[in-house]
Amino acid sequence: MKNSLSPNLYNNVSNCKVLVVGAGGIGCELLKNLVLTGFSDIQVIDLDTIDVSNLNRQFLFRKEHVGKSKSQVAKESALKFNPNVNIVAYHDSVMNPDYGADFFKQFKLVMNALDNRAARNHVNRMCLAADVPLVESGTAGYLGQVTVIKKGLTECYECRPKAAQKTFPGCTIRNTPSEPIHCVVWAKHLFNQLFGEEDPDQDVSPDTEDPELTAAAGESALEKETEGKEIERKSTRVWAMDTGYDAEKIFSKLFRDDIKYLLTMETLWKKRRPPEPLDYNNLSDESPSSTNDMRDQRIWSMKECADVFSKCLAKLKTDLAAQGDGGMLVWDKDDDKALDFVVSAANVRANIFGISQKSRFDIKSMAGNIIPAIATTNAIIAGLIVMEALKILDNKFDKCTAVYLNRKPNFRKKLLDAGRLDPPNPKCYVCSAKPEVTVVLNTQKITIKFLEDKILKSELGMVAPDVEIDNGLGTIIISSEEGETEQNNDKFLSKFNIINGSRLKCDDFLQNYNLNITIAHVEKLEDEKEFMVVGDMAELQAKLDENSKKKEGESSGATPGNTSSKGRIGSVNYHSNLYTKQILVIF
Question: According to the UniProt entry, which residue ranges have a biased composition of type Acidic residues (predicted)?
Answer without folding.
Answer: 197-212
